What does this fold into?
Amino acid sequence: VINIFSFSKAFALAGFRVGYIAINAGAGEEAQDAYNQMLKVQDTIPICPARPSQVAAMGALSAGRDWVAQQVVTLDEGRAAIMDAIQPLGTVMGGSGAMYVMAKLPKGMDDREVGEMLVEKHGIAIIPGSFCGFPGWIRVCYSNLDPERCKLAAERLS
It folds into this structure.
């Protein structure tokens, strides 16, 4: 068995591009051969993640699972507030594995215009869905806001 891990979900370091592979020292010959093939691929790309990503990963490991568990609680509170605010739009996706949700806008609404209006009138920045391949949708990220700020943003979105 070869285990492949990412810090993206386990330690909320999405975008840092840090991960690792673990193989039991007593693994069978097939597993060892597969691992050796992975090393050949690794040699053809940059040898390591950027230094800030490495430092962040070490910090995450040092902080441990208790810190991660607290962050999950914090993210859940923020997600719930945002979901409550955008649920009236009808079709909403995401939030279970990502730190953003997607909401379908009512027919005829331009996602870019909605994005501009939210920034200009309400001080809320979203990503128009057309930037992500989903025209007519909006993407609302809640990962960098504490629950109180998510609640404030949710009030403005309502």
Notes: Residues 89 and 106 are 7 Å apart (CA to CA). The chain has a mean pLDDT of 86.
